Amino acid sequence: MRFKVKCGLEIHTQLKTRLKLFSNSLNKSQVLSNKPNTNVSFFDAGLPGTQPVLNYEPVLLALKAAKALKSTVSPISTFDRKHYFYGDQPLGYQITQHYQPIAKGGYLILSSRFDQISQNKTIGIEQIQLEQDTGKTLYKDLTGLAHVDLNRANVPLIELVTKPDFSNPEEIIAFLKQYQYIVKFSDISSGDLETGAIRADVNISIEGGERVEIKNLPTTSAIMHATKYEIKRQISQFEKTGKHITETETRGWNGKQTYKLRDKENAVDYRYMPDPELPPLVLDVDEIMPQVEIEKPRDVRLEELMAEPYGLKLRDAITLLYNPEFHSYYMELFQILTTKKIVKRDLISNWICHEQVGALKKLGRPQDEYLPARVMSELIFSVDKGSIGSNNAKLLLMHLLDNPQDQVLPIAKLIKQFDLGKTTDDELDYAKICENVLSQNEAVIKEIRRTNSQGKLNFLVGQCMRISRGKADANDFRKRLLEMITT
Amino acid sequence: MFLRSIRRLSGIGKPFKTIQEVEEYLARPNWATAELLVKAGDDGLSREKLLNLQQLSGLNAESNEETEATLLKSIQRQLGFIRNIEDLALPVEGSTVDTRLIPKPKALVFADLVKHAKSDPEKGEVFDSWNPTGLAVDSDDGYYVVRDSLDKNEEKAV
């Protein structure tokens, strides 16, 4: 039997603001080394007599998110109290926007081209609301005592609620990645799941059953695995008992399975009430929204990188898109090399996105310690004009990364100094090397003639390169070998 | 309820002759807030619901039957009051805005949001002017200390 699965997301996103939501204390939620309780105002600590006053920077960031998600901004939104008791929430309630959120509706399109899903899908947005974060409670042992840090209390969040439009975990991950792009590049949030800047809860139900909410999923991997597990669990329960889940419940994830935390609270349990201390937020939406600036949509930027003049492959375009510094480095090199009229354009992306990244990895160096653009461009240019073979260029790249003092020397001088230059036909007898290699590999020749195996041909090219000590051009050997084998 | 009261006030009766008569009449309210605490047809509030509410509010749920009965009765009356209020016919538009104690402010434009984006001097708070754990009865290494057990770690709402 095939079950129709429905999933929805609730995403809490910490906003990148200078101050907290309703006080003058600093929002240092992304500074992990921050000492506990050092960014706490009277209001954050819930001292009697204090009152909230809304800061406008979080409003601007919420409006950016609304614009990027094509949500309709409300001319009037209001703040409400959601009551629940917890040590790290000293007010006894969270200020949120339950009745009239700042924005409603909207959508995000997942693309089969860029999101590794089978077909395009539109995910509807229910609403976006502004609200406070809570403090943090740390349980260190089993003594029954807990440590509370209020630095995070009253940090501004937006809660985004999607419609239950997801059919599988892959779509959820695709949505989250695109959402992360939006909040990161429109400067709304740092957008990291791992640091808690984004926290996602997943709602899952199979057709005919009530929904189950899984809370506190800290990584995309946890979201993927917990969702898969929960879908299987609900289907398996129905198959065994013939009964659907009849009551909404909240579950946790322990890395292997979901487990029941509690029955899900409803609106009555939280005793929502309008916050009498906060006036409605009234916005001249028509005047404001055209002036709210956001980054171009992800798909537009990817298309730009994959089109002329860059012509990048999707994988490389994605790498650049999510690494702004690397993106700038690439663009600087691209500018230098295209001015030099480099012939093989693919060399640029290959040497920047693959060879150099791979070399840094081999050397165990940070991924952002790349060669200065001038040096790297000279090296790529030397490969393009044939002054150095690609194998020897890789050796030189490793040397330069490992010996920064040599980065000031011209590449041509280093090629000469280390005798890495490509030899010409006059200096190296290509034909003789090929004949030698072929004479010792008759079985391989037969196999190539029979199956046209590229792998076997590469083996022979490798043998030739070994004899020439990497100073020859592998493509020259390939052409000659192929000619000799097929004639 | 309010509307009914207004109807009572505006009913046709003996005309007032002096302003004193009017004032005397208004000084004798013919309805009481106590009426709002009674609502017919209330569905019963279960003991389980009471325990749940106590837990959500961080209140001690270890009470005897007599206390529970008193609490149940009290909550029942409060619920009745809310239902009476809910029954009032209010204009749909703007009714939720009117529940705030503060009047509806004028609409903000983009310049307002940008101008006050970074700080609001009207708050009058001085950053770093106090020691947040200085007034706490119990603190440890800069943290507030709360008597709380590990199992609640998994019951957080946000």
TrEMBL record, chain A:
Keywords: ATP-binding, Ligase, Mitochondrion, Nucleotide-binding, Protein biosynthesis
GO molecular-function terms, A-Z: ATP binding; glutaminyl-tRNA synthase (glutamine-hydrolyzing) activity
Assigned protein family: Belongs to the GatB/GatE family. GatB subfamily.
Main location: mitochondrion
GO cellular component, one term: glutamyl-tRNA(Gln) amidotransferase complex
Protein name: Glutamyl-tRNA(Gln) amidotransferase subunit B, mitochondrial
Record-level GO BP terms: glutaminyl-tRNAGln biosynthesis via transamidation; mitochondrial translation
Keyword match Signal: no
Gene designation per UniProt: PET112
EC top class, as a word: ligase
EC number: 6.3.5.-
Catalysed reactions, semicolon-separated: L-glutamyl-tRNA(Gln) + L-glutamine + ATP + H2O = L-glutaminyl-tRNA(Gln) + L-glutamate + ADP + phosphate + H(+)
TrEMBL record, chain B:
Domain of life: Eukaryota
A Pfam family matched in the record: GatF
Name of the protein in question: Glu-AdT subunit F
Natural source organism: Kuraishia capsulata CBS 1993
